[in-house]
């Protein structure tokens, strides 16, 4: 008896459960990207990047010639916040918005300037969304502009920016989470920044098959937010790695500097040479793929100081200088020159952050908190006023372990070079 | 109906880990911040002490359940009265766990499914097991799924290792101090202390004795270690501030698994074993409630019929909890920690033990 009843109930539960949450794929509009902009009148404009279901599976039969339709569509709506805009957007959509794959969030520059505090709660609250997400600020543009660009290599611009970010040497797909963690630490935040870039040189399309560079999306660097979560400024592509190295997150990076002379005592010109804007000449490029950072707070004196030791391991990839790299002492000269250059470069970025942005995005405050918790209790409240004036002592120690396929260049010796 | 020591070990372990992973972490991290792991060590120690007292007490009456030996110790009236808090606690636990399970399921998977379906299906499976298999079936399920739970948890810890940032654990002790750390320990202690229900399971073990005590203590110890790892991982992943605000930080951490592009979305495995944990826990509670009520009313033989009534009552109670929707934090703090922990887990077992020890001495004195 009991067995019968229970089997009926089990069968019923198989049939019944899930019905309420059934959502056919054909009834879903899969959201890959989500953008928020602030309009002049104070309303938010949300933009959703949706997968176009019919096109995304093409490539099989209907792949004759270049189809002019793109693999994605964008839809937008005004609203008071994310959810409100989503509901308003639903009016235009025949399918239910499904944000389960919403891995990329775009923030327009205007909104970032006014502060992201008012919209970011949903990104951590919504149970539909996965915590591994990217969040980007669109420098000099709106989220909608960036999301509308057809990116050539990928079917979808939202996927494109995610992949670009993965190739930047920064931690993969966790900028949203890191923003939340940072904002809870010293109060500042950092997001990767995108920009819309027109081709450097305009090349005409002479035949229909030509494919000159087009306007496209690119990674600009990082956007820095102050403790009110308003945009304080940007670090460009040649600056944002400094924060990643200091906070021990950088995965790989190339560095290029200029080496003029081969004088044993003075390896190359002054550090200022490389920073002066000279972009060509006797350059050396290295590829560094192992990074280490050690920040030591020094608590003697009225203000804390920091000793920053940055270590890296890499190899030489390009050498246009007269140095003969088959000789180990010349490799050491490159190392020394590179250390000098990087120290100056990092110092410059640190000063920019300290004086212009006045936010501790490097976690220096956190290191005091971690190492000297009792002293930190006195400093914590005024940290944003103390931080711009503290001294940093930066030491870069590179270890170059290789010179590529050749020691001495395959090219004949040039001016100032050695015979052997 | 007999279980062996190994089955009891896995039962205790699954019972302790499941709900603790879900609800105790946020409460602990909120108080003890980055020192929550110290709280968990303290909680593990306290849990072991509680378990030791309860198992020592049961060892004195290896053939009797709590309901029976409380009568032996205190006499008919005293014995029946003193176990009333336990019976209340069991009903309370069943309905609250079901409520928590429903909330979690609704937040994570089934957004629109009505409450009665989620609860009803779970209760259906539980009552099927209890009615048909009794404690033996529960023991075997635990023996099968316990190791799987261990493997999945170990895999989770291994796969999230690249998200860890150990300086998040600093500074140790300086920000909190003994007060907050102890306060943080209360939530996990009160959940680890649920092992006192071994007082009901003891006579079902094949050869109750020292080995049983060891199995139970080991179960509590191992689950404390797992929880300790869990809280360390959570703090090192999210930092104390963010993990103190997440409702289910452990499961958010699992969602972060991302390895070589294709190892993602591990959370579904963890969710599955977690549901089995909850199932084991509910089944154990359902069994001891039915059996306990049957013994309490003096109709031990008809405990199966009583289990149906218990299921119906728990269903109604759970729906009531869901409709009234009391905040989970209040229930954990206001009732569980303030009443159940001191009374049911510490007070009554200790009192019974003392009385029984005094009585035993008294008897030997008389005999002499």
UniProtKB/TrEMBL annotation, chain A:
Cellular compartments annotated: Membrane
- List the InterPro entries: GerAC_N, Spore_GerAC-like, Spore_GerAC-like_C, Spore_GerAC_C_sf
* Keywords recorded for this protein, A-Z: Germination, Lipoprotein, Membrane, Palmitate, Signal
Annotated ranges, domain Spore germination GerAC-like C-terminal: 221-404
Q: Which residues form the Spore germination protein N-terminal domain?
A: 21-195
Q: How does it sit in the membrane?
A: Lipid-anchor
TM regions (residue ranges): none
What Gene3D superfamilies has UniProt attached to this entry? Nutrient germinant receptor protein C, domain 3
Which protein family is named in the record?
Belongs to the GerABKC lipoprotein family.
Query: In its UniProt entry, what is this protein called?
Result: Ger(X)C family spore germination protein
| Provenance organism | Paenibacillus phytohabitans
UniProtKB/TrEMBL annotation, chain B:
Mark the transmembrane ranges.
7-31, 37-54, 66-93, 113-131, 143-161, 181-204, 216-236, 268-294, 306-324, 336-358
Q: Does the keyword Zinc apply?
A: no
Q: What is its main location?
A: membrane
- On whether Membrane is a keyword of this UniProt record, the answer is yes
Matches recorded under Pfam families: Spore_permease
Stated family: Belongs to the amino acid-polyamine-organocation (APC) superfamily. Spore germination protein (SGP) (TC 2.A.3.9) family.
User: What is the designated name of this protein?
Assistant: GerAB/ArcD/ProY family transporter
User: Which organism encodes this protein?
Assistant: Paenibacillus phytohabitans
């Amino acid at each position: 008896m009991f067995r019968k009843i229970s089997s009926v109930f089990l069968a019923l539960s198989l049939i019944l459960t899930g019905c309420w949450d059934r959502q056919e794929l054909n009834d879903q509009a899969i959201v890959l990207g989500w953008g928020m902009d602030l309009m002049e009148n104070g309303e938010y404009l949300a933009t959703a990047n949706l997968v176009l279901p019919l096109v995304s599976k093409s490539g099989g039969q209907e792949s004759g010639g270049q189809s002019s339709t793109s693999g994605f569509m964008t839809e937008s709506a005004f609203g008071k916040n994310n959810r409100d805009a989503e509901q308003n957007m639903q009016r235009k959509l025949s399918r239910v918005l499904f944000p389960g794959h919403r891995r990329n969030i775009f923030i327009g520059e205007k909104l970032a300037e006014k502060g992201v505090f008012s919209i970011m709660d949903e990104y951590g609250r919504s149970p539909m969304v996965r915590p591994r997400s990217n969040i980007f600020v669109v420098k000099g543009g709106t989220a909608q502009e960036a999301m509308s660009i057809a990116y050539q290599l990928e079917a979808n611009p939202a996927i494109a920016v995610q992949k670009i970010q993965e190739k930047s040497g920064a931690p993969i797909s966790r900028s949203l989470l890191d923003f939340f963690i940072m904002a809870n630490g010293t109060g500042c935040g950092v997001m990767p920044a995108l920009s819309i870039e027109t081709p450097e040189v305009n090349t005409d399309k002479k035949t229909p098959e030509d494919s000159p560079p087009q306007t496209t999306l690119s990674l600009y660097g990082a956007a820095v937010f102050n403790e009110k979560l308003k945009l304080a400024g940007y670090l460009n592509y040649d600056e944002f790695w400094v924060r990643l190295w200091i906070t021990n997150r950088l995965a790989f990076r190339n560095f290029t500097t200029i080496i003029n002379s081969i004088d044993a005592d003075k390896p190359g010109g002054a550090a200022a040479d490389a920073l002066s804007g000279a972009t060509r000449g006797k350059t050396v490029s290295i590829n560094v793929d192992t990074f280490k950072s050690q920040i030591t707070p020094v608590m003697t004196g009225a203000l804390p100081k920091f000793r920053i030791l940055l270590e890296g391991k890499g190899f030489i990839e390009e050498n246009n200088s007269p140095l003969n790299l088959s000789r180990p002492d010349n490799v050491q000269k490159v190392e020394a020159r590179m250390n000098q250059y990087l120290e100056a470069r990092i110092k410059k970025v640190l000063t920019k952050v300290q004086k212009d942005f006045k936010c501790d995005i490097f976690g220096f405050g956190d290191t005091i908190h971690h190492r000297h918790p009792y002293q930190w209790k006195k400093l914590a409240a005024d940290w944003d006023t103390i931080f711009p004036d503290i001294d940093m002592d930066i030491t870069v120690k590179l270890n170059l372990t290789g010179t590529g396929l050749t020691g001495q260049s395959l090219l004949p010796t040039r001016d100032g070079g050695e015979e052997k | 109906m007999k279980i062996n020591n190994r089955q009891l070990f896995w039962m205790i372990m699954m019972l302790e880990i499941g709900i603790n992973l879900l609800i105790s972490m946020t409460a602990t991290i909120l108080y003890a911040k980055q020192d929550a792991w110290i709280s968990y060590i303290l909680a593990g120690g306290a849990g072991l002490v509680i378990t030791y007292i309860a198992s020592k007490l049961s060892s004195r009456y290896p053939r009797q359940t709590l309901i029976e030996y409380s009568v032996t110790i205190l006499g008919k009236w005293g014995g029946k009265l003193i176990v009333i808090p336990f019976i209340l606690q069991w009903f309370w636990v069943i309905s609250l766990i079901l409520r928590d399970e429903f909330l979690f399921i609704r937040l994570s998977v089934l957004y629109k499914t009505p409450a009665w379906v989620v609860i009803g299906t779970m209760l259906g499976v539980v009552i099927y097991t209890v009615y048909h298999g009794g404690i033996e079936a529960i023991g075997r399920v635990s023996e099968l799924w316990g190791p799987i739970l261990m493997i999945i948890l170990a895999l989770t810890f291994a796969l999230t290792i690249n998200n860890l940032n150990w300086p998040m654990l600093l500074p140790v002790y300086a920000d909190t101090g003994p007060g907050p750390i102890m306060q943080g320990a209360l939530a996990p202690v009160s959940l680890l202390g649920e092992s006192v229900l071994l007082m009901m399971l003891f006579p079902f073990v094949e050869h109750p004795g020292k080995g049983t005590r060891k199995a139970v203590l080991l179960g509590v110890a191992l689950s404390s270690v797992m929880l300790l790892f869990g809280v360390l991982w959570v703090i090192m992943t999210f930092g104390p501030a963010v993990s103190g605000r997440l409702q289910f930080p452990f499961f958010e951490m699992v969602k972060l698994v991302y390895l070589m592009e294709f190892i993602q979305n591990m959370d579904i495995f963890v969710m599955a074993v977690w549901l089995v944990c909850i199932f084991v826990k509910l089944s154990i509670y359902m069994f001891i409630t039915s059996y306990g009520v049957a013994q309490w009313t003096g109709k031990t033989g008809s405990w199966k019929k009583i289990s149906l009534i218990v299921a119906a009552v728990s269903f109604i109670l759970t729906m009531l909890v869901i409709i009234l929707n009391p905040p989970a934090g209040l229930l954990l703090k206001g009732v569980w920690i303030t009443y159940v922990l001191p009374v049911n887990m510490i007070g009554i077992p200790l009192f019974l033990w003392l009385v029984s020890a005094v009585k035993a001495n008294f008897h030997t004195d008389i005999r002499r």
